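Hey, quick one: can you model this chain's 3D structure?
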Amino acid sequence: MATVQTVVFENVEIDVSNNKQLFIHPIHRIVAEEFPIEVGFAVLSCAYDLPAGSFGCKHSVWTEDKKKLLIDYTHKPIPLDKTGGGMGFRTTFENIPLDKPGRYWIRTELSNGLKGDEICLRVESQKGKPKLNLKA
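Sure thing. Here's the predicted structure for all 136 residues.
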């Protein structure tokens, strides 16, 4: 059975010595003093134990009630020749407007009807904190 894991990172950089991606500072909440704010982050999803076929991925960010889509990105399908393989997808979102504190949902959907993943990003208001503070 296919498994999908999703992690949110503050940023992704490229290591110039070997040209590999560096995922910087995993996060699960954002603390801000004032709202609205604009945020950016990277979403990494890995899928394991996939059947042979072609798989795409869609990352989307939703409001707390899961009724309003804030932003999404769909990756083109990638072929997988053998059963049991895996693949990863990375999306970098920038300037996402968050009007108020609450829970925002990051959804990962795989093509071909496979179950994806959904994680919560908590956004909190706290006086005396920097205007924007990403927390692990």
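One thing worth noting: The two ends are 30 Å apart (CA to CA).
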